[in-house]
Amino acid sequence: MLLKRFMLAVVLCSAFGFSHSESFAEVALEHKAPESVANLASGLLDAVVNISTSQTVKGTEQGDKTALPKVEEGAPFQEYFNDFFSPKNDKSELNQSRKVQSLGSGFVIDAEKGLIVTNNHVIADADEIEVNFTDGSKLKAKLLGKDAKTDLALLQVDPKAKKLTAVSFGDSDNARIGDWVMAIGNPFGLGGTVTVGIISARNRDISAGPYDDFIQTDAAINRGNSGGPLFDMNGKVIGINTAIISPSGGSIGIGFAIPSDMATSVLDQLKEFGETRRGSLAIRIQPVTQEIADSLKLPKAQGALVAGKIDDKTVDNSQLKDGDVIIRFGNHAIKDARELPRIVAESPVGKIVDVTILRNGQEKSVKVKLGRLKEKEVESDSSADNDHEGGNKKADEADTIHAMGMTLSEITDELRKRYHIKDGVNGVLVTAVSPNSAADEKRIRAGEVIVDINQQLVKTPEDVSKQLEQLRANGRKNALLMVAGEDGELRFVTLRLD
């Protein structure tokens, strides 16, 4: 029996990567959970606040019940919820304005100036913002600035009206998966709630915005925690709690926080300018797939592929070319296309940056001068279906060829007019695409223009034939096409040669 127990201990040590000389007690001391976070929490609670907002909304003609929020039977404060939201029988109240209130969380980052951080969605469209402190006092707040793309907002209260307690930001880049963290916030209106968990994952993209890079945690986060801090065990803020995944609306152990290293640069701009001023490379990019990597003879699928430039006189990107693959921006290695926009956006406007690219299989360093990103909605994907009327008609008065499921033609004046092709867009025109062909699978459509094949410009259908023959002769299985839409926006597409 003793021998069996000893063997079991050895197996467990091996499974967890411990040497035989290490004892379980030593391992437990090094990796154990915190016995208590009471001392840590007590010093932080006063800096965490509740954010209360009110908004005036117009009534509806019929008191639309379907638009009302739903609360499960037996939920906390249900009777107050029903009294507030239940439709009234008095028709005189219809079409009258009413105030809608909401609650969130926030935290003080500068006691002398009265600066408070929260989420943008907590205060969005609010007419009034009130900050509630742990001692029961309340102060009106004004909005200094907000940023919808990172979901951050900066508020200010009168620091002379109350003595404030502030917390400071930590280094989220050094936070590791498995580190203990503590969340403090205002879930369901219950202020000063403390929960503890670990960092479950890093660099999460949940499609909440263009710069998603969330910390995932299993510390309980619920509705009302939005805008509250996520602390490390040193009492430093390493994240701002923002979102949860939950089918029920309650915590299931999947919550997300904005990393402090991203938040601080945004908040500094909101403090100084009242808005964000992001850097811009004025280029269009797309992911580097394995097919594209093979076509460009890259060692692996990495980086961001330059798929065109955007007209911006504040930017100097003249040393970049379409088809370049950006693998490093300054000191940051670019793993994929999703990472580049965030890093560029965090860089100062006007900064000159060394950019490492792969061009024709060779690594090269170029310099770019950043401009200011125009804050606008993301443009629609040029690869989406955009067939024009008559898009499947064959070209008139122009020689055509058929290749890879496409009918290709030179661009005549008549065809340029028919397909609304912008002046300056040159190459070989796609006039028809066979259903279920390789081109159809990659959503190439009639009216688009093939600009080059494997970084070789093509001007006529014959140029296309020669390039494809050369690729087949070299044993290549795919062709890399640079395709332009009618407005000149570029994208790269790989097509099978068989």
TrEMBL record:
Binding residues annotated for substrate, in chain numbering: 121, 151, 224-226
Single GO molecular function: serine-type endopeptidase activity
Pfam family, one: PDZ_2
Claim: Repeat is one of the keywords in the record: yes
Entry-linked SUPFAM superfamilies: PDZ domain-like, Trypsin-like serine proteases
Protein's cellular compartments: Periplasm
Region (Disordered): 374-397
Species for this entry: Bartonella choladocola
The protein's Enzyme Commission number: 3.4.21.107
Domain PDZ as annotated: residue spans: 394-454
Residues the record marks as active site: 121, 151, 226
Signal peptide stretch: 1-25
Protein known as: Probable periplasmic serine endoprotease DegP-like
Catalysed transformations (reactions): Acts on substrates that are at least partially unfolded. The cleavage site P1 residue is normally between a pair of hydrophobic residues, such as Val-|-Val
Recorded family membership: Belongs to the peptidase S1C family.
Protein keywords: Hydrolase, Periplasm, Protease, Repeat, Serine protease, Signal, Stress response
One GO cellular component term: periplasmic space
InterPro entries for this protein: Chloro_Bact_Ser_Proteases, PDZ, PDZ_sf, Pept_S1C_Do, Peptidase_S1_PA, Peptidase_S1C
Any GO BP annotation: proteolysis
Matching PANTHER family: PEPTIDASE S12 (PTHR43343), PROTEASE DO-LIKE 8, CHLOROPLASTIC (PTHR43343:SF3)
Protease among keywords: yes
